[in-house]
Amino acid sequence: MANYTTPYLGPLLVSLVFSGVLYGCALVQTYVYYKLFPKDSGKFKILVASEMCLQTVHLVLLVLGLWQTVMTDYAQRPQILGLALTTAISVLFSGPIAFCTQAFFVFRLYTFSHKKALAVVYSFLVATQFLFALMVSISTIATRELSLQPWQWFIISMLFIAICVDTAIAVSMSYYLKTSDPGFRRTSRVVDQMALYIMATGTVTSVSALASGISFLIAPKIFIWLGLFIIESGLYTNSLLAALNARAKFSRELQHPESAGCLEMPLSILDT
């Protein structure tokens, strides 16, 4: 039985383990966020709470779905080759999780650049990716299986857009952040650190989407790509929380007494 279950169960079980680890990291970051920023904007607090609620439901449904597959349907080949209903529903939550995080970074990019056209283009791409993810997920829930043939180009497009959007947002934010650098030594160092941090968080999700896309193109019937897609939602949540929490570190460095003369770079940029 291992011959036909390994390509299906293996990647999903691995994704469950990594999702659990990422959820634990997100919980720690959430605690740190509310501890460091008790007076933060209400919209950010609601965003963090919403992300964690979605992540909690996502993980619980994934656990229930894999439990049903491994314990209940394991001896029944037709059922085990499909997706349990709760697993299919858990995949549905990956779309909103990614959408909320990407929307936050688009908003932050607009705050950095004040370029409405750029924000509109990225918002359109993010909304398109979210729509494709919803369509594939709803179809999966309805049929209890991933209908690869009719949805192949939607899946490929969704992953391709994710790679482009995450990379483009990271590069654009780094660029406009560098252009706001007043040129003071300490401030320049902090700006460089912020740009590197932004690139790192954007690269993580981009690489995950790229690996998922390559896996899908090479072996769409093996669920490696689906496992990577499931893990990706945890990466998005942690990227969001890391971006919010990093403001404390960068703000302390900018407010250091030795840098009193280099605060021409507005600290308000860290609060967006």
Task: Explain how this protein is built.
With 272 residues, the protein is mostly helical. The chain has helices spanning 2-36, 42-72, 77-80, 85-92, 94-113, 116-143, 148-179, 185-218, 224-254. Helix 2 packs antiparallel against helix 5 (94-113) and helix 6 runs antiparallel to helix 7. It starts with a helix and ends in an 18-residue tail after the last helix. 35% of the residues are buried.
| C-alpha termini separation | 52 Å
The stretches of 5 or more residues where confidence is low (pLDDT under 50) are 259-269
Number of strands: 0
Helix content: over 70%
Give the C-alpha Rg. 20 Å
Shape: globular
Strand content: under 5%
Which tags fit this structure?
single chain, 272 residues, mainly alpha, 9 helices, 82% helix
Question: How do you describe this structure in short?
Answer:
This protein has helices spanning 2-36, 42-72, 77-80, 85-92, 94-113, 116-143, 148-179, 185-218, 224-254.
Topology of helices and strands:
Layout: H1 2-36, H2 42-72, H3 77-80, H4 85-92, H5 94-113, H6 116-143, H7 148-179, H8 185-218, H9 224-254
Helix pairs in contact: 1-2, 1-9, 2-4, 2-5, 2-9, 4-6, 5-6, 5-7, 5-9, 6-7, 7-8, 8-9
